[in-house]
Amino acid sequence: LTCVMDNIFGAGGAGGGNGIGGNGPQQFFASLPPVTRIWLGSTIVITACANLDLVKWNDLDFSRWDDVMGRGRSGRVEAWRLITCFLCVGKFGFHTIIGLHLMTQISTRYEKMGPICTRRIHIPVEGPAAAATPPAAADHPNPNNNNNTPRGQNQQRRQQHNNNSPYYTRGESSDYVFALLFGMIGILLSNSLLLPKLPTSITHNRYHTFFNRHLTFYIVYIWSKQHPHTRVNLFGMPLAAAYLPFAYLVIGYALNNGEVIPVDILHGMFVGHVYFYLACVVPKVLGGGRCVICTPVVVVDLCHWLEGRGLVGGGGGDGGNDGPVLVDVDGVIGG
């Protein structure tokens, strides 16, 4: 079924040839990159539990902040809703299979082709060197010897990476994890603050309580902006990746008989645009190695620890300036 769907959708709209290998479910799952593997595995487990009535659907959705904060009908804090609302695809059926397939394929390609890097270039200052550099010197470096200060070292490192970008050149698993966290937070906040203000001609008073499709098309949009000239094949129709999200939007609108705009696709695209703008456009506008968002060191350390690599926060690495675009998934998370 996966092979048939891969031929139909052209690897979920993300191009052919780089498909995921494997002769069976176990080999297929083991061949996935680590973040995609965790996302898919968690989604299958939560969706199966809901469909088998092991848990109730309304215990997994997100409809009100009161339920999360403990002010709902149960009177208890239900923080898991912030996660489970992204891990339910729907009731068992062809639509669910399509959703899982698209999520897996686009996530795999985004992760394997290298996520957008938001790990900030940072030189940890330790021991006597840190004590010997007063704050004033760090803020106003000596123009004749500015490479001895932390700021000068950071600027020198950025020059070695081609430009004044505040980020390393290649993304890794921690950058993808941060992108997912940013998307989840952005989707939930905009769902509560912005969507209720949209006219009913757009929403038709239909509000979502599960956001897996929102998050999937959030990744679709980011991937299409990162690789705009990549050729993809959607239902046998070749097009540039830059137009892929809009093609899905038109198809979704057509499947609704031209009556209802697929708000879930549009919502994911909106949050994806915000992320891409903050990660890729704002640093170029600000210049000087400045940025608005960056992958937290704790996320980088956690991913490096799970992958058996050095820790940035603990001084065991330099942030992975040339970290691998592809990771050996057989020896990493759940390998």
Helix and strand arrangement:
Blueprint: H1 2-9, H2 25-30, H3 34-51, H4 65-69, H5 81-84, H6 94-112, H7 127-132, H8 135-139, H9 150-160, H10 173-193, H11 200-203, H12 212-226, E1 231-234, E2 237-240, H13 244-255, H14 263-286, H15 297-306
Antiparallel strand pairs: 1-2
The largest sheet, given as strand count, sense and whether it forms a barrel, is: 2 strands, antiparallel
Report the order of strands and helices. Answer: HHHHHHHHHHHHEEHHH
- Overall pLDDT score: 78
Give helix % range: 40-55%
Radius of gyration, in Å, reads 22 Å
**Tally of DSSP helical segments:** 15
How many β strands by DSSP? 2
Strand content: under 5%
- What is the strand arrangement across the widest sheet? 1-2
Termini gap: 24 Å
Quick structural overview:
With 335 residues, the protein is mainly α.
Textual characterization of the structure:
- With 335 residues, the chain is mostly helical.
- The protein has helices spanning 2-9, 25-30, 34-51, 65-69, 81-84, 94-112, 127-132, 135-139, 150-160, 173-193, 200-203, 212-226, 244-255, 263-286, 297-306, and strands at 231-234, 237-240.
- Strand 1 (231-234) and strand 2 (237-240) form a beta hairpin.
Jot down its keywords.
mainly alpha; two-stranded antiparallel ribbon; 50% helix; 2% strand; disordered N terminus; disordered C terminus
